[in-house]
Amino acid sequence: MAEEYETAIEELKSSNEEMVSVNEELQSTNEELETSKEELQSVNEELQTVNHELTVKIDELDRVNSDLRNLYESTEIATVFLDRDLIIRSFTPALTRIFNLIPGDRGRPLTDIAHNLDYPSVAQDIQQVFGTRQPLERRINRHDGATHYIVRALPYWTGSGKVEGAVLTFNDVTGLAQAEAQQRVLVAELNHRVKNMLTVIVSIATQTLKSSDDMDAARKAFLDRLHAMARSYELVSRDQWSEVSLFDVVRQEVEPYRTGRDDRIVLDGPAIALKPKLALSLGMIIHELGTNSAKYGSLSVAGGSLEVSWAIERRSRDSLVLDWIERGGPPVGKPLRHGFGLTVIEREVSHGLGGEAKIEFEDGGLRVNLRIPLDSQ
Fold first, then answer.
1. Were both Cys, which of 103, 195, 318, 324 would link to 368 (CB 3.0–4.6 Å)?
2. pTM of whole model > 0.85?
3. Out of 3.30.720.10, 2.30.180.10, 3.30.565.10, 3.30.365.10, which CATH number does the structure's domain 177-376 have?
4. Cα-based torsion angle of the residue sequence 190, 191, 197, 199 in order, rounded to the nearest 10 degrees
5. Number of helices (H) and strands (E), helices first, in the chain?
6. What does the pLDDT profile of the chain (377 residues) look like in tens digits?
7. What CATH code is assigned to 75-172?
């Protein structure tokens, strides 16, 4: 019994040692589990941070995608994105006005799509962009010539610096083309007008010097006529050579003589818009009449007056009818020959404007009646 007891005691001791060893292992395992739990918590926190950053990036990506979608839908610039095989990746709605595209055409070659452009070298231009890696710009038209475009082909770069395709943009420059054409017309018209103006100046100088023996008087008359021409040109050029009011043309020439009484000069007539040619001619005519009146007619005396009236005569050929009536001036008689001023009036009305000029020397003053076809403008 004693031996069995001692043996049992030994076994108990051994079991106790094993239990102590197991307990130590369990404590070590528990410590490892605590460490792993802390690591897991740290990893979980990192995952939460990464998840938050990923959520922010996704939100930013959504905003960028929305911006791009709105840009695609709102831009008026026709744009198409192509890969190396000229396959359509994407395009803006504005491109459908040039190419017959539908959303299902993504993935088809651009060269298979019908269009209304006079642009047979589109594939060659894109291949040139692939080869040179430089943008290319070309001006093209529609087949009917009604619309003009500037085409820009640019390489499509990836983040790694490779060219994976091309981007084509079509900018409508029809307005610019029309402006260029209008500018060419205006330059040609300006050259024509300058030549005519120089011819008129030479004619005025020649006739003024020929009809005057006093050089000082001739110089003054010549400068006055040049100033009248300059005022007329300033009036028509103020509105870019568009239509000019007849009232403004008459008023600017007679305004220097409007002194003294309010009723000294009366202007009466409807609002009539004149083309530049007629405005310039009438400016010179009114200037000559005003100069003549200030020297010899009703505007040369304090009690004289002037009435200028006009109307449109509606017949088979509409005409402008303008009356120049002087009253209260010194007695006038019909001269033996017309001076340069009246000669300019008759010649300008009949030859330049295709109208008629009736000049009467009455006891009360000079009376002039002008009839000018409106289609002479």
1. 324
2. no
3. 3.30.565.10
4. -160
5. 7, 12
6. 888 888 888 889 888 888 988 888 999 898 889 888 989 999 999 999 999 999 889 888 888 877 767 666 667 788 888 988 889 888 888 888 888 888 888 888 888 888 888 888 888 888 898 888 899 999 888 888 888 899 999 998 887 778 888 999 998 888 888 888 777 776 765 565 566 556 556 655 665 666 566 667 667 766 666 666 666 566 656 655 567 888 888 888 887 777 667 788 899 999 998 887 788 788 888 888 888 888 788 888 888 899 999 999 887 678 899 999 999 888 776 665 556 567 778 887 887 788 899 988 887 788 999 999 877 65
7. 3.30.450.20
CA–CA distance from 13 to each of 2, 7, 24, 27 (Å)?
Answer: 16, 10, 16, 21
**Token digits of residue 172:** 């409508």
Whole-angstrom distance, CA of residue 316 vs CA of residue 249: 26
